[in-house]
Amino acid sequence: MGDDAAPGRMPGRARATTHGHLSHVALELFVSHGFDDTTMDDVADAAGVSRRTLFRYYPSKNDLPWGDFDGMLTSMREHLASMPSDLPLTDALRQAVLTFNEFPAEERDLHRERMRLLLTVPALLAHSTLRFTAWRQVVADFAAERMERPAEALEPQALAWACLGVCIAAYEQWLADDDGDLLRLLDAAFSWVGTGATVAATGGEDRV
Predict the structure, then answer these.
(1) Which terminal CB of the chain, N or C, has fewer other CB atoms within 10 Å?
(2) What is residue 4's predicted lDDT score, i.e. its pLDDT?
(3) What was the pLDDT predicted at 192?
């Protein structure tokens, strides 16, 4: 969700305004001033856009940390649909999750702060639940097609919840360790759920 536009452009330069640019500006303000103490007017001023323009991109302050989340979900649906049909379902989901958690090294710290906000700020938690529901539905729809089951059936929904849990567990580990590697943690978590949980349940080692 990177953006080449620099903060502080003049209001007339509307072509430089993107979801990514506005989200980055907002994140920097949230980190430096706190989420609760930053207003939409503050974000609009820092981004060099009108309040009306900001609300056209983001209906509420709670949406800003997510960036172009709807666009990401569309891309994820398309990415999953392009997966080879002979690729096992769980492998396809793992690859998709890893792909959509890749980001440039220079955005690592900002992405960490984004996830810290989404997972810890009380004012954002309820909104995050709605976003996670939309994310889970993308997974459930893909799983349902592969399983030839309705998307609301137990199996696709259970898998979607499991994938979300794996991602949140990896993110929490990453946020707790400044030197952590998010992609490694996600990959390890998916691997453990696929094999380690069975080993652990039978009394074997559960290390990843």
Answers:
(1) C
(2) 35
(3) 86
